[in-house]
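User: What would this chain look like folded?
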Amino acid sequence: MPIQPFHLAAPVDDLEAARHFYGTVLGCAEGRTDTEWIDFDFFGHQLVAHLAPKKQEDDHRNEVDGKHVPVPHYGVVLEWQQFEDFAQRLRDHGVKFEIEPYVRFEGLPGEQNTMFFYDPAGNALEFKAFRDISRLFAKQLNS
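Assistant: Here's the prediction, encoded as structure tokens.
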């Protein structure tokens, strides 16, 4: 079954900062815009940056593989080399990682590259790539 694009509306407190981050830094093409929102082609999905007041509280965190993962977060599963290239793009743009790119669950069926960072409005993003994409929805992490 082909994957259908998802739609996500994310709060941002500065549309120009969102335009620069998602458009220039992440390389997402801009779609329709208004004075209160901007559509982006987020790796084939529709991400809408909606103007909203800055959030006042810190994200919750869950421990995964010894790291403190911010919740909520969103992102995209990339191909392995695409992940490596994208991580370098982020480094080139000076993005500060919350969790640096690394291989999680190495040598296990759920082996994946992962990284976490924030957009200028404080939204947490995770990008990942599975060594074996057929394991994306595997119920177990080990063999």
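Helices lie at 15-25, 80-92. If you want, I can go into more detail on any region.
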